[in-house]
């Protein structure tokens, strides 16, 4: 096992804090894109099908490059200095965000321009994520890994909490200032302000990162001449250890259920919950922000919970499956709800489970895979676990224009509960933390 770096925990805390800026900035941009599509490009009720397609296209642009580029990104991270990889990706992402802001200012951001820029940002994010996810395992002592994983989950959910309300405020800021006689030059559209701030957060995160010492573990195996040989290693490693493959299959089902939320949530707020929030005197932006913010609160509470508790020390697979079942039940109840506030509480419950299950899963992988191999293995892991998400998002874009989104979500939630409950009795998953058995399975496969 590769030893952790001196002062690694302190470095991790600094890295975690500064990279939080760019994560929050990206969450702001994603929410702003949703508002931009819903209120600027496709505002009319008769444009529901076009809006569903646009939301699906943007979601796919954000997911596909990250998922299918992950194996190459992971192999690249294992071959090169991880700090330099993260720094270059921070700068590239800053340029993408600044370009989005400039195009909004110029009034030249149609869907066919927006989608490629989102895809480019996602591609850069996949390389950054591959380097980042494998870096803190060599910074943090093994006994602190569950806590670090909980903090990482808190980071993602905290961004989900802060982004909706903050983005809604920033989008409305130029209009609010205009009412007071203050006009921001070139920033009549608040969406541009969000994108520009996102670019600034990437620049700050990159500059701070450059001053940190992020070790890159030395490889104990011979480095293949071909990058694609490294990509193939990740697949071979996982396929030789069937319990890990079953764990990924379970996440594939959960991601198939969860991926369409980005498409269905705005549609449900606009068309299913519309009578309720209109009766309360709210706007669509406020209702969507409320739902996302309360959901984010649930995610943050889940992250704080797992960070404070530290998670299960054994049988961690239960920390994956039980939260998945609870999250599926929350989605079923959400599909039946016609009350905005009740829907927000149910979304919070669903988001509460995500940091808990992800932290347990990450701890399993970090203890089963040597650090010098984690870039290649983790990236393939991400590909297998998330490959169903884009397919589900594509189907959601079609189905959302044909069927009530709440009905589709009901079916998906029931499927998640049933599948994950069945996995509690899967003999392979129940022994996924038995490293000696996993290596025995790999040896048997190599001998055949």
TrEMBL record:
Lineage of producing organism: Bacteria, Thermotogati, Deinococcota, Deinococci, Deinococcales
Protein name: Major facilitator superfamily transporter
Membrane topology summary: Multi-pass membrane protein
SUPFAM superfamilies (UniProt xref): MFS general substrate transporter
PANTHER family: MACROLIDE-EFFLUX PROTEIN, MAJOR FACILITATOR SUPERFAMILY (MFS) PROFILE DOMAIN-CONTAINING PROTEIN
Subcellular location, principal: membrane
Domain of life of the organism encoding this protein: Bacteria
InterPro entries: MFS, MFS_dom, MFS_trans_sf
Spans traversing the lipid bilayer: 12-37, 49-73, 85-105, 111-134, 155-177, 189-210, 244-264, 284-305, 317-334, 340-359, 380-400, 406-425
Organism for this UniProt entry: Deinococcus aerius
Gene Ontology molecular function, alphabetical: transmembrane transporter activity
Keywords assigned: Cell membrane, Membrane, Transmembrane, Transmembrane helix, Transport
Domain Major facilitator superfamily (MFS) profile: start-end pairs: 18-430
Keyword Cell inner membrane belongs to the record: no
Leader peptide range in chain numbering: none
Keyword flag Cell membrane: yes
